[in-house]
Amino acid sequence: MQFINEQDEATLDRFIKRLEFRGTDPTFVAYREAYLELLTLPPTGTVLDLGCGTGVVARALAARDGFDGTVTAIDQSPKLIAAAERFAADEGVGDRIGFGVGDVHALELPDASFDVAIAHTLVSHVREPSTVLAETARVVRPGGKVAIFDGDYASLTFGCSDEDLGLEMEGAMQLTIMSVPRVMRQLPRLLGRAGLRLVATQAHVYAEAGEGGFMLGLAETYAPLAASGGFLPAERVEAWLADQRRSSAEGTFFASCNYYAYVAVKG
């Protein structure tokens, strides 16, 4: 996998567009709101948003009814942080969020300094999930909560008229998009090792059949990286993308992925 800071400007622009689209997709928003409800955010609490991307979750928190606390949002990409600051200012919540560039494997933050920490679609993309979870636990106060939301990307699948090509692309997409595609299956064990006690789990299946929208956008955003990363020849990737576009236009599209939310308490 190529990490975010290894991408070119055009790819990062594509990522920004995808993250913002995903932040407005009704189904994905519902997933986010479902686990946020479990956190019972303290009205004046401190929240850490790890791997914040363009700040979608941070902005949702800052604008949340009944929440007058502060949000600290960290991402390793200066370009994504710049976009996040711009979007937050545009939405009038920039004064409620402190954005910063940082490495979630080694947070430059004090121990026990947050009431809540959130990692939204982060842990499948990092080099060492266990290190990230240990750092997350370190900066959350005793009794504080941690929410982890991500896809089980080993379950990501697309219909394809050429079954062999479909299998090739699914494998290439896993290598392209994430570092640890099965990490959500390991997370109950990893949370305990980090000193976090699992208290709630939510499971979702995002499936599209007939016409592609959310999933077709995922394909358009990430499939080209399978070629640029050297995982598949460009002509194979384009043939697969053409098949996805054609199936969506014909009403025969299919794609699916499982998503999970875990809420844990420190101590």
What report would you give on this structure?
The chain is globular. The protein is α/β, with parallel strands linked by helices and 267 residues long. The model has no long low-confidence stretch (mean pLDDT 94). Helix 5 (129-139) links the parallel strand 4 and strand 5 (140-158). It is built from nine helices and seven strands. The chain has a seven-stranded mixed beta sheet with strand order 3-2-1-4-5-7-6, sandwiched between helices. It has helices at 9-22, 26-39, 56-62, 78-90, 129-139, 163-177, 183-193, 214-228, 234-250, and strands at residues 46-50, 70-75, 97-101, 114-120, 140-158, 196-210, 253-266.
Name the descriptors:
7 strands; alpha/beta; 267 residues; Rossmann fold; seven-stranded mixed β-sheet; 44% helix; 9 helices
Fill in the CATH topology of the domain at 4-152 and 179-205 and 260-266.
Rossmann fold
Task: Give me the CATH superfamily of the domain at 4-152 and 179-205 and 260-266.
Answer: Vaccinia Virus protein VP39
Identify the strand order in the major beta sheet: 3-2-1-4-5-7-6
| Count of alpha/pi helices | 9
* Main CATH class of the domain at 4-152 and 179-205 and 260-266: Alpha Beta
Strand content: 25-35%
Indicate the percent of residues in helices: 40-55%
| N- to C-terminal distance | 34 Å
